[in-house]
Design goal:
40% of the residues lie in helices and 19% in strands. It is an alpha/beta fold.
Length: 365
Amino acid sequence: MSDFTEMLIKAVQKQDAYAGVLRRITLNQYPCEIEGPDGLHLATVLSRLHTVSGRSSLVVMPTEIEAESLVRDLQLLNADSALFPWTGTAPYSSARPHSGISGARIQVLSRLLDGTGDIIVTSLRGFLGAVPEKRFLEGLRIHIETGGKFDPIALENKLSVLGYLRVPQVSVHGEFALRGEVLDIFPSGMDHAVRFVFGFDEVEDIRLFNPLSQVSMAHIDDFTIYPQREIVWTDEAVAALRSYLESRKDVSEETWEIAAHAGQDVENEGENLLFAACFESPGCIIDYLPEKSFLFLIHSEHLTTSNEALKKEYRELYIQARSRLRYFVPPVEKNLIDFDKAVSGHERVFIFPAIKSPRKDGSRF
């Protein structure tokens, strides 16, 4: 950390407004309104408040560009932070997210499940876009530890379901290789691949290695494998989809054809759009936060207006999709999170308005 950032942190901690926010946290007074900080100043305030929580925190910015900028500022402060990106695809588009984006999203959800305590930053689109239910993703984790039981054939099948591609030698994210008594895997978001060495049915060694040079870097005691993507067609997911479609009266033969082949080797057009119907209600990234975590809403007025525009966009594109596509697509409420409901259900909320308020119950930097 540079002398400048250390000076900035000390300056923030000396401000009366910062002391006022800490008092409100101690007294459990939420929502807490904070005015003034922006840019690197904002990142400093967020990083300091995050340390008070001791848990993962979620920051919602109006746009993707603002979210990316904030992550860069947090990294300048050496704060453990990560961007939860928007999928980059239009609502009700059959196009799939770029593999790099899918990997970044699943990595953030995985880190939240692991309780790493990071600051997660996302845009409003990233916040309101549906994700798999927390329970569903938790059930897909594969935890392997030294000395534990190991079935390479069963694991190979599970990895294929989770979106990993078998290759002779791993070189890029999302690949795995099984050779004799060695299994290599290169999960998304990691700088190094992971090698499992086993004898018969027991794990003998787990190590990190460089996928380019194949040189081992370090030994570890255990490792948890997460899916390579959010859309995972398990038997449970396929059964839930079929049950939902049976409850509808507007499902075409083309839709049933897609559902019949969901999760098979060949991906069908529209398969990714149907996945939202596997869950009773859409999952939200806020569901992955631990209890008593902090939720920061930046430029709250912009979030409110953008939320209304986003709901209108989803409704219009849903209507267009229903008239344009031959297959059924889940309604808006299956794909878009209710902003007000998500925020009101969270206890520790901090609101950063873009416009100064005449009210005096907030903290102004």
